[in-house]
Specification:
With 418 residues, the protein is an alpha+beta fold. The chain is built from 14 helices and 15 strands. Helices cover 47% and strands 21% of the residues. The protein is elongated and about 140 Å long.
Length: 418
């Protein structure tokens, strides 16, 4: 009996110990499950219901901070802008706004210029930051990138200012010349001289207004609505005919070459205007008794064959600084020379928009006193519709055109003929 009692007592003690150990293990497991892990810090639903869904569809960069200024939630755009680094809000002014809002519950908004990540050029991002309380513990920061909007606004502001200046100059000249004609009514030679100047200024004003209309049209119209196959040979012949008189006056030889019987798909009038502008610039900025060449060829490209049209001159050339801006509206390398040749500074802007809207690109190679080569690349008829539909809006692109090495050999150095 004593042995049986001892065995029973031992079994009872073992059962009690097993129960205690099981209970402790269960409690420990519960505590371990409740303890936050590195993963749970990012996945636990700490936001109020529905907020996560709303933040995911916002266009603004969103950051949610807790009472310890730790980032609870941040959108991918916030990381891209450099707002969040190492789980903390990296912009000190925004962090100060968040703390003030957490303290008094007031909504705050401010515009800031942030350094652009990954560049050493000192460029800044313009942003608008808005901070608001989110519940009792959290703070919501919404950041809107205003850089592109400011750039577009600056372009529009400069455009209006330049238009006003360009229109004011010939209009003022016409006003002064008309007064001079009235004062010289008894001098036929002076009247004739002033009338000739008035005709020049009126022509300049007419050209400016027409180019403004052309620029507005190529920016707003879809050139592929009435597109058709266009023979490159006809475009080249029309561009040469357009500038034949100016070239003849300066004894400039115009030569066409390259592959024959090529076709592009697009608006014939706009393509002819773009190529004509390049040839006209080549003639106007070339010395007398030099040569302007126009060459066409087919090249292979990943999205389909392209047609290249290169206009090469032996002119004064373009500096590297000016090459970055020549496709801007109203920008002229030599304003005094452009005024003498009747240039408005809109020709290359029109070329850029025409080519971009047709799914192509324009590039330039140039060296001072060695001439320039402007190259149009347009999709060959057949593959043009698909390429043009995928091309970005030219208005959202950088105002500057593209510069690169020319695939064509430059013409020999200008040789003044006797």
């Amino acid at each position: 009996m004593d042995v049986n009692a001892a065995v029973a007592a031992a079994a009872a003690i073992a059962g009690v110990l097993t129960g205690v150990i099981a209970m402790l293990a269960f409690r420990w497991s519960e505590r371990d499950q409740k303890r936050p892990t590195r993963t749970s810090l990012h996945t636990d639903p700490v936001l109020p219901p529905g907020v996560d869904t709303v933040l995911s569809v916002l266009r603004s960069s969103a950051v949610v901070l807790d009472e310890a200024d730790t980032v609870v939630k941040a959108s991918s755009a916030a990381y891209a802008l450099g707002l969040v680094r190492g789980g903390k809000l990296a912009i000190e002014p925004m962090l100060g706004m968040a703390r003030d809002t957490r303290r008094d519950g007031e909504i705050r908004q401010v515009e800031l210029d942030l350094p652009r990540r990954g560049t050493g050029r000192g460029e800044a991002l313009a942003v608008s930051a808005r901070v608001a309380p989110l519940g009792s513990r959290l703070v919501l920061l919404l950041v809107e990138d205003l850089t592109e909007a400011r750039r577009i606004e600056a372009v529009r502001r400069d455009f209006v200012a330049n238009v006003s200046h360009e229109l004011k100059t010939p209009v003022g000249a016409l006003s002064l010349l008309s007064e001079a004609v009235m004062d010289a009514s008894d001098d036929p030679e002076a009247v004739q001289r002033f009338a000739g100047r008035m005709q020049i200024e009126a022509t300049r004003l007419t050209n400016l207004v027409q180019e403004l209309i052309d620029l507005s049209r190529v920016q707003n119209d879809d050139p592929l609505e009435d597109a058709e196959p266009v023979r490159v040979d006809e475009l080249v012949a029309e561009a040469i005919d357009r500038c034949r008189h100016q070239a003849g006056t300066k004894q400039i030889t115009m030569a066409a070459g390259g592959t024959a019987d090529l076709h592009v798909w697009g608006n014939r009038g706009q393509l002819a205007a773009a190529l004509g502008n390049l040839v006209e610039n080549a003639v106007n900025y070339s010395p007398a008794r030099t040569r302007v060449g126009i060459a066409a060829r087919r090249i292979s490209a990943p999205g389909g064959d392209m047609i290249e049209l290169a206009v090469t001159d032996q002119g004064i050339g373009i500096t590297d600084k000016d090459k970055e801006r020549i496709f801007e509206r109203f920008y002229r390398v030599d304003p005094a020379r452009s005024r003498a040749t009747g240039g408005t500074g809109l020709g290359l802007a029109i070329v850029k928009h025409v080519v971009a809207s047709h799914g192509g690109e324009v590039t330039v190679w140039s060296a001072e006193n060695q001439g320039s080569t402007f190259t149009l690349r347009l999709p060959e008829a057949g593959a043009a519709r698909d390429r043009a539909s995928q091309h970005p809006d030219p208005d959202l692109a950088d105002e500057a055109g593209t510069t690169e090495s020319s695939p064509y050999e430059p013409l020999p150095a200008p040789e003044v003929l006797p």
